[in-house]
Amino acid sequence: MSGVNIQGLSIRFGHNEVIKNLDLQVHEGEFLVLLGPSGCGKSTLLHSIAGLIDVSGGSIHIGGQDMTDAEPSERGIGMVFQSYALYPTMTVERNMSFGPRVAGVPKAEIARRVNRAAEMLQLTPLLNRKPAQLSGGQRQRVAIGRALVREAGVFLFDEPLSNLDAKLRAELRRELKLLHQTLGNTMVYVTHDQVEAMTLASRIVVMKGGVIQQIGTPSDVYEQPANLFVAGFLGSPAINLVPAKVGADGVSLEGVLPLRLAAGRVKPGQHVVLGVRPEHVRLQADGRWRATVQLVEPMGNHQVIWMTLGEQGFSVLVHDGRRIAAGDVLAFDIDESLLSVFDAASEQRLS
Ligand SMILES: Nc1ncnc2c1ncn2[C@@H]1O[C@H](COP(=O)(O)OP(=O)(O)OP(=O)(O)O)[C@@H](O)[C@H]1O
């Protein structure tokens, strides 16, 4: 098994610098998820680890060895792509054993690896089928199996579930997590799906414009977002972002949510943005604020209440079945200790 150490990585396509002086340490055995919006450079970063694109600067070490300029086949990695690209004329067994056969691995060893991977991925009864005789989920399992039989130290996944329907996605997501628990290999996984990131990751790397915004456990990035971008990217419904100004005393806030912060957190006159997660808002009769309900979205086991607070939209997650309707005026309160406070100018979190 091995970790990956990336130092000062830069990748350019023409004049477009897609990865900018990036440092990243993937720990041995962790499930690291690269998360970010379309075009932020996640796949480019993953492909550079795989050796599928040349880097413009910096270094990539895998398992302690400098692999910056090594061929993909020399890097000790297995890769699973979004489109599974199986060989249509080969059986599942032949598809899975293709890589080791080409590499000249002895037959008995190939059989051992294929049977082990098939067992883990519930593919044993399907080994003699052709890809056309499989469902989308089964095909993606074969693609994962094909990577597993390489018995690589590091597995790289590029949005492997995004072609599947929602139910299959959730099912395969759990299988991948179990697989990681069983194998304990280093895994690097690209997605723009925050649910996949939150549920699978040991640590999440949030990226924007080729730059890492934050690295942390799922609860770190959700509860302590480093900046406004990370705060807004994670969470559904999204975090409420409410502007406010710090009063002359340095603790009281002026705006639609007047409240007091712990001393020393902000400066008099500073413009800030408050981040309030919808699940941290409490509806209670003696709440300090009032807002009018605009829309109610029932979600089965909870409801999302959309309110207007001054000019500002504001969402609240309610876990009980109380009846709420558009036009109701609700009183609510917020626990200040659960607030995130950002500087409005730099957009960075204020500790
Ligand atoms: N081979 C290439 N030649 C030129 N530009 C490229 C190439 N590959 C990627 N890019 C550009 O690099 C940027 C990052 O692309 P990348 O595919 O890494 O983003 P991503 O975060 O994985 O997005 P997505 O989720 O849409 O796949 C994009 O602006 C893209 O257009």
TrEMBL record:
<keyword id="KW-0762">Sugar transport</keyword>
<dbReference type="InterPro" id="IPR017871">
    <property type="entry name" value="ABC_transporter-like_CS"/>
</dbReference>
<dbReference type="InterPro" id="IPR003439">
    <property type="entry name" value="ABC_transporter-like_ATP-bd"/>
</dbReference>
<keyword id="KW-0547">Nucleotide-binding</keyword>
<dbReference type="InterPro" id="IPR008995">
    <property type="entry name" value="Mo/tungstate-bd_C_term_dom"/>
</dbReference>
<dbReference type="InterPro" id="IPR003593">
    <property type="entry name" value="AAA+_ATPase"/>
</dbReference>
<keyword id="KW-0813">Transport</keyword>
<keyword id="KW-0067">ATP-binding</keyword>
<dbReference type="Pfam" id="PF00005">
    <property type="entry name" value="ABC_tran"/>
</dbReference>
<protein>
    <submittedName>
        <fullName>Multiple sugar transport system ATP-binding protein</fullName>
    </submittedName>
</protein>
<keyword id="KW-0472">Membrane</keyword>
<dbReference type="InterPro" id="IPR040582">
    <property type="entry name" value="OB_MalK-like"/>
</dbReference>
<keyword id="KW-1003">Cell membrane</keyword>
<dbReference type="Pfam" id="PF17912">
    <property type="entry name" value="OB_MalK"/>
</dbReference>
<dbReference type="InterPro" id="IPR047641">
    <property type="entry name" value="ABC_transpr_MalK/UgpC-like"/>
</dbReference>
<dbReference type="InterPro" id="IPR012340">
    <property type="entry name" value="NA-bd_OB-fold"/>
</dbReference>
<dbReference type="InterPro" id="IPR015855">
    <property type="entry name" value="ABC_transpr_MalK-like"/>
</dbReference>
<feature type="domain" description="ABC transporter">
    <location>
        <begin position="4"/>
        <end position="234"/>
    </location>
</feature>
<dbReference type="InterPro" id="IPR027417">
    <property type="entry name" value="P-loop_NTPase"/>
</dbReference>
<dbReference type="GO" id="GO:0005524">
    <property type="term" value="F:ATP binding"/>
</dbReference>
